[in-house]
Amino acid sequence: MAHKKRILLKLTGEAFLGPDHKTLCPATIQSVIKQITELIPTHLFGLVVGGGNFFRGKNEGKTLGMTPSSAHQVGILATMLNGVILKDLLAQHNITATIFCAIECPPAGEPISQQGIMATVKKEQTMIFTGGTGNPFFTTDTNAVLRALQMEACEIWKGTKVDGVYDKDPHLYNDAKLFKNISYKDALNNSLQIMDPPAFALAEQYKQTIRIFNIFEDNALIKAAQNPEFGSRISCS
User: Fold this and answer.
1) In angstroms, how far apart are the furthest CA atoms of the chain?
2) Contacting residues for 115 by C-beta, under 8 A, at least 6 apart
3) Which CATH fold topology does 5-235 show?
4) What is the pTM of this model?
């Protein structure tokens, strides 16, 4: 049997929300899970999910007047909530998933370790990575690259609310330019905001390719699997 293609899928927490981006709604996340079910025969997924549907440290933390480190800790906990939700929904589709948590919390997942990750890869089971890196000031983008390297993923897929990498926010600027292919060097030099600089730097160092696409588009994961030109690609060249 051929080895499955290993993918680290980074999901925005907004995948749990409805069109108003405020109310919990199952439509998008159930669609994502259905697509994962279709791809499981050929793909092995590690999932990193943000916590923005509950709490964003840099936004809500600032609004509340919290110190940045404490605000980031709340955001880290929010990713753990989403991990438990995601595991339950996957189980309802007969997908066995292991939650790895960067913060010790036995009810929410097992402690992350390289041995545990590779044992799960060997069993060809889905993985959910929660708790970020376990430290404040590191985003889920950086965590996604880190976990992709640990599971030896061939690509990182970042499912977000835009259809690729732009030179500025396409929701605010009609003249925003789309980059179908861009190097990490150019992404950093142009201060593109699609991912954080530490994530770009780590991915570039280890020559990890990142695909950026709109997770809210119909069958986005299927399209990403079938069409290498779907979305935007960030790589070393």
Assistant:
1) 55
2) none
3) Carbamate kinase (3.40.1160)
4) 0.94
